[in-house]
Design goal:
Helices cover 37% and strands 15% of the residues. The protein contains 15 helices and 14 strands. The radius of gyration is 22 Å and the shape is globular. It binds pyridoxal-5'-phosphate.
């Protein structure tokens, strides 16, 4: 297929791509977001009337005369077809994109094979040689490394900034700053970013703002309503929520998403599979109740750990001891399923926990139905990824000390989790 073929969505409103589409508002009032999580973008199969989304595995769809594929002179009019070739999108992936757009109250969304692909797609579309990117000095390691190690090789200037310091951000803008990329809460230290303040400042300087909202999820925070331009998720985490599919998404204004789709969506080639799109949609069905249960459990466990003799510090946005608890209350509807804690001699404790835990799992990743804990050692994180110094290193250490145990709360009985952590932490 010629790479010069325009995006099939170039002139199409996402709500009319795959008819019949369930409306996002009934009887003149907008449906609530819990309902949109189930209904937004849901396409009832016209042949079978199946309510659960079908998986369409086909890579390509037939060009049929009379369907708008051919003009009178017989030349293909490929822009008339929504589903041409699955690297651009396919019907199942498109349903997921519409559901994510509905959840984030965005015009449109582009789904990708992984969360990192959504971040790379955004960077590689919005930045070119000579442009300047401001990236959070602490954000998901893959995003941080992509920005600070890879992009400069392509002539893109990059500055890492502590986004919780608006004065530091204000001082970092240059005339060629095009994009500010942040996270809230940030992985792994759960420091928050005031998204309204960042967006206001960036727009004053003519820059766009992307936020990786993976840890917040659409249940906690709606970044577009706070002024952010693009919301990115690793769908692999809470949104799929079952630890069995990779995926990513970027949501935002129609023209921005179209630009990302027609450049990186096509040429990066990191398209989401229909099978994974279906799994992620099945996960979204229960996103709201999962996040509410996880948030309730996380608060209870954060309080339990705060009182535990072997724990020296706990960070959770829902605790009044979190330094940005007021911002958390303002920006998050629920405080989420992630917390961190510190202990003496974290390396020895990591081995101890990996041996002793019976309910939670000692492993990387987060946002699954099963609880997961892992040590992120500060010296190791500095070496491998962040390379912070001076005030930025001190600010990291204020949240993380020598290292944090990052705990992603699952759906187990909270009593079992408390008992498990208690016995595992004991000498
Ligand atoms: C906040 C955040 N963003 C992005 C990613 C990358 O997601 P993926 O593994 O789907 O590429 C992760 C993975 O841990 C993450 O925690």
């Amino acid at each position: 297929m010629s790479s010069s073929v325009p995006s099939p969505f170039a002139a199409t409103d996402h709500r009319s791509v795959a008819a019949p589409l369930r409306p996002s508002s009934e009887g003149g009032h907008t449906l609530r977001r819990e309902t949109l999580a189930l209904d937004g973008g849901l396409v009832i199969d016209p042949a079978t009337k199946a309510i659960a989304p079908n998986i369409s595995m086909s890579v390509n769809n037939m060009l049929v005369p009379g369907d708008g594929a051919f003009s009178a002179d017989g030349v293909s009019d490929l822009t008339a077809l929504p589903f041409l070739y699955a690297r651009w999108t396919n019907p199942t992936v498109r349903q997921l994109e519409q559901r994510m757009a509905a959840l984030e109250d965005a015009d449109d969304a582009l789904a990708t094979a992984t969360g990192v692909a959504a971040i790379a797609a955004t960077f590689l579309t919005l930045l070119k040689k000579g442009d300047h990117l401001i990236v959070s000095d602490v954000c998901y390691a893959g995003a941080n490394e992509l920005a600070r190690r890879i992009l400069p090789d392509y002539g893109i200037e990059v500055t890492a900034v502590n986004m919780s310091r608006i004065d530091e951000l204000a001082a970092a803008f240059r005339p060629n700053t095009r994009l500010v990329h942040c996270e809230s809460p940030c992985n792994p230290i759960l420091r928050l970013t005031d998204l309204t303040a960042v967006a206001t400042l960036a727009h004053r300087h003519g820059a766009l703002v992307s936020v990786d909202s993976t840890l917040a999820t659409p249940v906690a925070t709606r970044p577009l309503a706070l002024g952010v331009d693009l919301v990115i998720h690793s769908l692999t985490k809470f949104i799929n929520g079952h630890g069995d599919a990779l995926g990513g998404v970027v949501c935002g204004r129609k023209e921005l998403v179209e630009k990302i789709r027609s450049r990186a969506g096509v040429y990066l080639g990191a398209s989401l599979s229909a099978q994974n799109a279906w799994l992620v949609m099945r996960g979204i069905d229960t996103l709201f109740p999962r996040l509410r249960t996880m948030s309730d459990s996380a608060l209870r466990i954060a309080r339990f750990l705060s009182d535990h003799p072997r724990v020296t510090s706990v960070t959770y946005p829902g605790l009044t001891t979190h330094p940005q608890h007021d911002l958390a209350k303002h920006q998050m509807d629920v405080f989420g399923g992630m917390l961190t804690f510190q202990t003496e001699d974290p390396q020895a404790m990591a081995i101890h926990l990996a041996r002793r835990l019976r309910v939670a799992h000692y492993a990387f990743s987060l946002g699954h139905q099963r609880s997961i804990v892992v040590l992120l050692d500060t010296a190791e994180m500095m070496n491998s990824t962040y390379r912070l110094q001076g005030a930025q290193l001190a600010a990291y250490r204020a949240f993380a000390g020598d290292g944090v145990f990052r705990l992603s709360i699952g759906l187990e009985s909270v009593d079992d989790l408390v008992e498990d952590l208690d016995q595992a932490l004991s000498p």
